[in-house]
Write a sequence for this structure.
């Protein structure tokens, strides 16, 4: 048993990691300002500290109150589009919060740190699948801010010996297969929840962002990786940092699916049509992003257990159908979701 600090542990990926840590018997403290996170996503038995990472005094209090084997850092601004409207805010906040947290970890004697990073730092790569040696040319201020956070961690290792891993996620998707957690963003910008809600008649038809890309059906191809598999990667990587050096991993299934294939999958699983129209391209979207997960598999034994797109969509559908208004709507009686 060990104790871990999870920032952003009330958010989408963070909460699935908290659950996975708890299930294997670890103790978890969540630090989350609940701007995006949900109190209800933090399982019973997990301490929740509601605080902003910019508040150094509160961060220091957390490290003074508990001793941690490791830190998993999810709390961050994470919308690509927003980052192109407010780049300075993204660069400043994501870098400075990571640096504050790494500094507090070092001072407290904590030696391991896992950073939630992103495939967005690869920009528009030419070679697929994308391995860890691919050139880093972020296509957005969000991607750049995560690269800056990774660089800060390089320095924390070089100067203070803080061992870190950055996990560059491709498209996190799906929900806890037992239905305890799901995806609930405000605003929701991600394809799978938007397609499901459109099929359920809960929002406007989906807009497909461009069908003139150089892909077989003209729509963008992404690597959708199940959030439970992503959570498993964090645990394995954190364990490896006990004896291993600082490291960077790309985390995806290694399989690409187009926007149209996602729509077809949602229609298959939900048994309803996904009303949609074709719109213009979204600025900054590369045609194809698919991960090479070779290094992660080789070094940690990780493998995706929920790799199929239909399985990913099935878990996402189940959670959204049962939670018409996300976490704020847990008490909806059976059947009401369908009528909503
Ligand atoms: N997408 C779309 N319509 C939407 C939202 C997303 O066509 O309303 C497309 C988007 O262009 C991308 C893919 O779906 O090719 C996945 O987008 P998402 O925002 O879920 O994740 P991202 O790839 O931006 O991390």
């Amino acid at each position: 048993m060990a104790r871990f600090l999870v920032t952003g542990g009330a958010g989408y990926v963070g909460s699935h990691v908290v659950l996975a840590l708890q299930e294997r018997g670890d103790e978890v403290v969540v630090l989350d300002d609940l701007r995006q996170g949900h109190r209800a996503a933090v399982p019973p038995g997990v301490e929740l500290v509601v605080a902003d990472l910019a508040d150094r005094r509160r961060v220091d209090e957390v490290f003074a109150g508990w001793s941690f084997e490791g830190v998993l850092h999810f709390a961050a601004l994470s919308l690509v589009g927003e980052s192109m409207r407010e780049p300075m805010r993204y660069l400043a906040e994501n870098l400075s919060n990571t640096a504050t947290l790494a500094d507090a970890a070092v001072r407290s004697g904590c030696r391991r740190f896992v950073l939630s990073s992103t495939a967005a730092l690869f920009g528009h790569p030419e070679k697929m699948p994308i391995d860890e040696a691919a050139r880093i040319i972020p296509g957005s201020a969000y991607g750049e801010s995560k690269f800056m956070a990774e660089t800060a961690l390089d320095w924390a290792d070089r100067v203070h010996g803080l061992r870190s891993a950055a996990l560059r996620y491709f498209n996190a998707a799906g929900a806890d297969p037992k239905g305890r957690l799901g995806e609930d963003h405000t605003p929701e910008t991600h394809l799978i929840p938007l397609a499901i809600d459109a099929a359920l008649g809960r929002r406007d038809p989906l807009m497909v962002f461009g069908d003139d890309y150089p892909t077989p059906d003209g729509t963008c191809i992404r690597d959708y990786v199940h959030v439970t598999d992503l959570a498993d990667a964090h645990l394995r990587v954190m364990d490896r940092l006990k004896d291993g050096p600082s490291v960077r991993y790309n985390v995806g299934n290694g399989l690409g699916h187009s926007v149209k294939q996602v729509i077809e999958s949602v229609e298959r699983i939900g048994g309803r049509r996904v009303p949609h129209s074709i719109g213009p391209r979204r600025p900054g979207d590369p045609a194809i992003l698919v991960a090479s997960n070779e290094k992660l598999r080789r070094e940690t034994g990780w493998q995706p257990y929920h790799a199929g797109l239909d399985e990913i969509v099935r878990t996402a559908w189940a959670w959204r159908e049962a939670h018409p208004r996300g976490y704020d709507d847990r008490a909806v009686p059976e059947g009401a979701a369908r009528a909503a």
Residues 191-222+254-291+304-339 form a domain with the UDP-galactose 4-epimerase; domain 1 fold (CATH 3.90.25.10). Confidence is low (pLDDT under 50) at residues 330-340.
